[in-house]
C-alpha cells in the first residue's frame, strides 16, 4: 500500500480503502460529526461505525456535510446483538440506514457471534440472521457482508450454512494482541481481516519497546502500529477525535518497517486489557 486510496480487494471484487476511520467510543453529536468531517477532509474515504456505537446519526451528518460523492466513500456499519434473527436483522439494517441517511452501504457486519440472551441457540439464530444478510447483499442494499469478533468455531458453522460467505472478519489486532489462529483461519477462507483498536485503544502509546522502534523510523508509536497492521495485510481502523492525530494517522506511507522490526512487533508481549471472549461476555 502506497497511499490511503489504495485498496484491499474482497472475494467479490469490492475494493476496501486500506485505512479506515474508526468511530468506536466517539461520542455522538458534534464530536462525531466534526471528526468525520475532519477525517474526510484529511483524505480518509473509509468510515467505520456500528449501531451500538450510538453515533450513526452524527457520522451520517459528517458524511453528507463533507460534500464528497457517496460513491467515492466506503461506509461500514454493524448489526447489534439484539437483532440476530431474519426479521430483526432487516429492521435493524433499515434503522441504521435511516440514521446514517444513506441509500446503500458498502459493508454490513454482524458485530458479535454469540449474544448472551440467545447463546444456547447459536446455530438457529445465526442461520436465520445470515439469510437476511445474504438478501440485503443480493438486493444490492449492501456491497459486501461479513462478521466481527468471530472465532474459528463460529466461522466453521457460518461457512457450513452460508450461500454467500462472509467476506470480512473485523477483529481486535495490534502489536501485543495477535490472534494468530483466527488470522490464519480467515486468510485460508479469503476473508479480509480488519483490525479494530490498532493502537490498543491508546494503551500502546507509552510503551517503551514500541517507542524504541518508532524512533528508528523517526515516527510515532501510533503511525508505527498502523504501518505494522498494513504490512501484515490487515485493514487498520484507527480512531481519533483529535484533528492533528486524525491527519497524522493517515501519514504512514513514507517509511517501511524492516522484516527484523516486524518480527519484534509480531512477538511483543500483551498490552492493554484482556480480549473479551465472545462466548462468555455479558452482552
Ligand atoms: P483521541 O480520540 O482522543 O484522539 P484505537 O484506534 O486503537 O481504538 O485507539 C484510539 C485511542 O488512541 C484514542 O484514545 C485516541 O485518542 C488515541 N489516538 C489516536 N491516534 C493517536 C495518535 N496519533 N497519537 C496519540 N493518540 C492517538
Structure, described:
The strands form 2 sheets. This protein has an 8-stranded parallel sheet. Strands 1-2 form a two-stranded antiparallel sheet. The chain has helices at 30-42, 56-66, 86-100, 122-138, 152-161, 180-188, 208-216, 221-231, 243-248, 259-266, and strands at residues 7-9, 15-17, 21-22, 46-48, 74-79, 107-110, 145-148, 168-172, 192-196, 235-236. It has one domain (7-202, 234-240): NADP-dependent oxidoreductase domain (TIM Barrel), CATH 3.20.20.100. With 283 residues, it is of the alpha/beta class. Bound molecules: adenosine-2'-5'-diphosphate. The site of adenosine-2'-5'-diphosphate has 18 residues, from helix 9.
Percent of residues in beta strands? 5-15%
CATH architecture: Alpha-Beta Barrel
How many individual domains? 1
Counting helices, strands and paired strands, the structural category is: alpha/beta
Q: Biggest β-sheet: count, sense, barrel?
A: 8 strands, parallel
Classified by CATH, the class is: Alpha Beta
> Which molecules are bound besides the chains?
adenosine-2'-5'-diphosphate
Strand order of the largest sheet: 3-4-5-6-7-8-9-10
**What do the pLDDT scores average to?**
97
Distance between the termini: 36 Å
Element-by-element helix/strand order: EEEHEHEHEHEHEHEHHEHH
Q: What's the helix count?
A: 10
CATH superfamily: NADP-dependent oxidoreductase domain
CATH topology: TIM Barrel
